[in-house]
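Protein modeling request. Please complete all fields; requests missing the sequence field cannot be processed.
Requester role: graduate student
Desired output: 3D structure, token encoding
Chains: 1
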Amino acid sequence: MAVKRSIPSSEGFDRVFSTPDKKVSSKHFLLLSKENGLGVARIGVAVRKKDIRLAVHRNKIKRKIKGSFVAKALNLAPADYVVLVKKNISQNGVMIKKELNDLWDKIERS
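Delivered output (110 residues):
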């Protein structure tokens, strides 16, 4: 059976938001992390409807974030990671992918 890599509830998100162990940001993303004691890295994505109106665009960004996480998950410390998407993000997939890779690299080094 595959390992569940997503944060399952709002309590998990609240725990990361209230007291994150690490914070890393870029132009379009804020990455928060908190140790989870489960021995596996998990991801949560927060995109405000106010910032990105169309659900199609919100879901596309979420898929890109989760895809980049899966590619890096084995190299990351076992923790809960929440990615907040900031305003005015472009839909350029190459730019998003590069920025996310830089973000994961920063959190690995810190």
